[in-house]
Amino acid sequence: MNRLFGTKSAAPKPTLDGAISNVDSRVSSIDVKLSALNAELSSYQSRLSKMRDGPGRNALRQKALKVLQRRKQYEAQREQLSQQSWNMEQAGMMQDNLRNVMTTVDAMKTTTKTLKQQYGKIDIDQIERLQDEMQDLMDMGNEIQESISRAYDVPEDVDEAELDAELEALGEESMFESTVGEDAIPTFMQDEVGPPQFVDEPPEQAKLKEAAGGVG
Question: What is the DSSP string of 83-102?
Fold first, then answer.
């Protein structure tokens, strides 16, 4: 059965990088051949420059022409392979760019889906109600502050003359307290604390008079 219908190939599928590597290897092989042909042509040209016209020189010239023809064929083949490699490299760059674009698109899809789920849980009306409640509370707080810090006016029925008299009395009381001090002696105690009035002369003068009487 396998001979009739064949079997699936187990070989891995070729990749773009593999194809580019294969072509580059062929280009390198052609470069080696071209280097050998150039060396051979140089040898023929050196020998032809030293030979005179004749059958030998003509035969050598024919060999040089065949080598030159082979070199041209290899150069043409090398040009084609180089172009193929460049085309595949461009295709590889396009493939990489497309892969990056698809990765970016997938990331954007995932982000959009996540944002929709997150924003779907937010109730705009609830946020508006919270904002209104916060504004009401701030207004209430401001009203309370204004009420607490309100200044009380003096009643209109207070007599300014009475206030002036009370202020003058406070001033006299303050002056009295400043003149009397904490260590001042009351007037009713000044007679008891003062020195005795029965002493007529100081003690030193009395002693001097007694001494003078004794001597006389």
Answer: HHHHHHHHHHHHHHHHHHHH
Q: Phi then psi for 53, rounded to 5 degrees? A: -65, 140
| Maximum pairwise Cα distance, the chain | 193
Where do runs of H (alpha helix) occur along the chain?
Answer: 2-5, 16-50, 55-120, 124-148, 160-179, 190-193, 203-215
Hey, where are the domains in the chain?
A: 14-120
Which tens digits make up the pLDDT trace of 102-145?
999 999 999 998 988 888 878 888 888 889 999 999 989 888 88
Angle subtended by helix axes 55-120 and 16-50, to nearest 10: 160
- For 7-24, write each residue's pLDDT tens digit: 566 677 878 888 889 999
The DSSP annotation for 58-85 comes to HHHHHHHHHHHHHHHHHHHHHHHHHHHH
Cα angle for residues 16, 13, 31 (degrees, 5° grid): 45
